[in-house]
Amino acid sequence: MEPHMSEKTSIELDHCSALNQMNFDASSSSSEPPVKIQEATVDQLPKEMYDMTIKVDKVNDNDEKENDGIMVNGNGTETGQTIVITIGGRNGQPKQTISYMAERVVGTGSFGMVFQCFFLHQAKLVETGEAVAIKKVLQDKRYKNRELQIMQQLKHPNVVELKHHFFSTTDKDELYLNLVLEYVPETVYRVAKYYSRMNHHMPLIFVQLYTYQICRALSYIHRVLGVCHRDIKPQNILVNPHTHQVKLCDFGSAKKLVCWLACVL
Predict the structure, then answer these.
(1) Record-annotated residues binding ATP (predicted)?
(2) pLDDT tens for residues 97-123?
(3) Residue 233 in marked binding region
């Protein structure tokens, strides 16, 4: 369903609240003419985006997380399936069983599929409302997965978090790696497309906030971890429409930078 908005609808933004939250100085240059901005509360900051209904576009898109997931009620992550995995049990940690319900497909591409899933209360197997994204990719049994190895090292507010992972098999004896990630509902691509359909420019403050956070994420993976993402595009930049926090995702093409080894960018 397309969003219904009046052409006269203005984008109300509380500069102070947004800038304090992101610790980012987005004040206008003194040489520019002052811009009159209506007062708004924090709840009104993403007002238009609360009402957004965006089609899901199919696009070709040093804390070790525990392994050894167990799959039940099927051989792989599929829509409508209950996924039960067991984590922990290492270094004296107790084992923990976690259940998810695969709700719908939110992304597809040459890499595989991404499902939106909901955490189930273990005792009652009812949805708690907590959502995760499970990225399912075909795994070559001969090699380790480079994306998994890199994501196990990532810990930054502007990089999508890997919660845990598990493996599943099919009747054809195909091995799949399932990455359980935090769920962020939108992407910069879909946000920009929304404003384009409405014949609006994306608000400058959003451009500044998103750019700042993207630079923070890239600085972290480059300088702290020595990793090059190699697939930066709007579809791989997630956005929380309520807080406007940005998170870099999809490290399927990422690679460790080695000074003596040539890397094709």
Answers:
(1) 136
(2) 888 888 888 888 767 889 999 888 655
(3) no
